[in-house]
Amino acid sequence: MFTKLIGDLGRILLNLLTAGLSRIKINPNLLTLLGFVINIGAAVAIVRDHFVTAGWIMFAAGAMDMLDGAVARSTNTASEFGAFFDSIIDRYSDIVLYLGLIIHYGHQYRMTYIVLVGVCIMGSMMTSYARARAECLLPSCKVGFLERPERIVLLILGAWFYRMEHVLWVIAVLSNWTVISRIFYTWKELPKVNILRPMAQPPAAAPDAAGPAAPASK
Fold first, then answer.
1. CA-based angle 161:57:42, to the nearest 5?
2. Burial level of 164, CB count in 10 A (0-12/13-18/19+)?
3. What is the DSSP letter of 135?
4. What backbone phi and psi angles, to 5 degrees, belong to 200?
5. Residue-level pLDDT at 78
6. What tens digit of pLDDT does each residue of 153-181 get?
7. Res 65: pLDDT
8. CB 186 within 8 A of CB 134
9. What is the helix (H) or strand (E) element at residue 127, kind and residue range?
10. For residue 91, what are the CA distances in angstroms to 14, 125, 145, 154, 198?
11. What confidence category does residue 187 fall into, taking pLDDT thresholds of 50, 70 and 90?
């Protein structure tokens, strides 16, 4: 009941903000870029060990991430470039947050967690890449249970409750497990797709109507 109430209030707030931003005809790509700038602020707060503040800033950046798509749909300005731009900026936002964590743990000389953040970066980037590459071959590849929204929620909770080290272990394991799941899913599904849509074979060379070519003179 309580969770439903929070969800309903969140949707009401999102609808109000979407309506207001649509009324002033703000460019959705500007909201996307603003979300990245806000995440830079979160990274700076992490470096300075202000984790609770960083959590709230990440929460605000996440709101921007929801608003850009909602405004684009509301104003009929959704475009393929907008989706592409959003994906690119999301990757930059993820990296800048992890960079803040690397600097934070670097100041403390905690090499284990510096490496752990690196593993999180690998898993986070490869989760998106595995899906994008698989969907060049398959209709869809959404398997796995730790995509970007879940990772951001975990980072926010880790910041709010000072459990970032625990969260990083979860992200490192589950994001890379998601990549492995997508590799396995693609390997399993690709033969089924190729039965219906065989891979194109190179065209056979057309025979020379004039017969075999004479050897070139030296």
1. 90
2. buried
3. T
4. -65, 135
5. 86
6. 999 999 999 999 999 999 999 999 999 99
7. 86
8. yes
9. helix 111-134
10. 23, 7, 18, 16, 33
11. very high
* pTM, rounded to two decimals: 0.82
77 C-beta neighbours (distance < 10 Å), count: 15
Look up residue 134 and give its two tokens: 């698989």
- Position 13 pLDDT exceeds 80: no
Question: With 0-12 CB in 10 A as exposed, 13-18 as middle and 19+ as buried, what is 132?
Answer: exposed
| 117 token code pair | 């953040």
CA proximity to 141, closest of 189, 77, 87: 189
The Cβ-side half-sphere exposure at 41, using a 13 Å CA radius, reads: 15
pLDDT digits (tens, 9 = 90+) for 33-55: 999 999 999 999 999 999 999 99
Give residue 66's Cα distance to chain centre. Answer: 13
185 CB-near residues (< 8 Å, 6+ apart) = 134, 141, 143
- Residue in this structure with the two tokens 């039965």, named with its chain if needed: 195
**Matching residue, tokens 């999180």:** 120
Helix ranges (DSSP H) in 145-216: 148-160, 164-196
pLDDT digit string (tens) for 63-122? 888 888 888 888 888 889 999 999 999 999 999 999 999 999 999 999 999 999 999 999
pLDDT at 66: 85
Identify the structural domains of the chain with CATH numbers, from first to last.
Answer: 13-196 (1.20.120.1760)
CA-to-CA distance for 197 and 190, rounded, in angstroms? 10
